[in-house]
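Onboarding guide, step 5: your first structure request.
Type a short instruction followed by the sequence, for example:

Predict the 3D structure of this protein.
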Amino acid sequence: MLRNLLGEPPRENSGALKEAMESMARLAALLRKDINAHPDRDQGYRRVELWTRGLMTSLDELEQSHFAAAFFRRSVQAGYMDEMNVSEQGEYARYVYFYKNGFIRVFSLLDKLGTVLNTLYDLNTARIKAHFSYFTVLRQFRNNQDHRDLCARLEEIKDRYREPMQRLRKRRNAEIHYMNSELQDDLWQLHQGVHDRIRLEDLDEHLEDLRLGIEMVCRSLSQAYGYSGRLLERRLGKSR
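The system replies with structure tokens like these:
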């Protein structure tokens, strides 16, 4: 959608994004097949199918946010706020909008994945924390002896992307709980000297962190849904 609005060609999925989308689509199709064959089955599969299709939409929107942020970033050449003309200020504002939308969506999408895993594997994470995050689910998963392989893969992905995810989390927390993130940068700089000029944050570094965050999300989705799909295929094969 955003590519069309920006006059760009449609996206062709590739790499980690393609793997994640295909893994989710396979599990959704398996769930739908089982629901159609057993309409009186527990509604759990129906919920997971709906959540999965929602996750596919959320991942598409996350990737689009990163694309749009990178698109508008190309028009920002100034290094300081007072060097921007009116047009460049508008492009910077649009970059900020989509960048913030992106890093907020990274954690929102992970939390939705946590809800899916909590349901599929009966982790009962709500007993530990009523409003739980993906990372709380992952800690709870360590107690599940039947699926240690999946837990180990998800933990490895989390550790591999620890540093960029920590930076994204810090900015997400500042945006949601304290003040908007670019204003926080500005206030910090003003403390250095009342008459100092306000330097822009490193836009390329921030976009790279967001790209890595999306990659972390995609790899986590691929592992979780790939594993769950293979498990469901075996279960459905035995029930025939």
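Each response can be followed by summary notes, for example: The chain has nine helices and no strands.
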